[in-house]
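Write out this protein's structure.
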Amino acid sequence: RGDAARARLIAPPRTVLLWADPVALERVLENLLDNAVTHSSPEGPARVEVTWENRGAKIELQIRDSGIGIEPDEASHIFDLFYRGRNAVAPGSGVGLAIVKKITENSGASISHMPNPGGGSVFVLQWPSPPG
């Protein structure tokens, strides 16, 4: 997308083994990264930080953005089908995060959201660690 030219993606240099359907994982990450850029402030570059860590029985991915954020009273609805927040100005249908949640749950994973202390959002994905 054209917005990607104004984004700055930060990711750790280390790798982690994640046991997931690559197509499903790509769809999840594509949606979350696209949202992070699309809903960033039009002033200056979007800042998106992706981290991953092995936490024993889980592999945790975090996607932090510096975007417009989600109002606290709306946070419990962001994964609802067709839900769009009051401050969403970019076009959309409100199905992206509902699809992301369904994909993660069908993969035996989980997704949650919390506000980014510096402004924006943090999405936390937890996948089961690979077998063996």
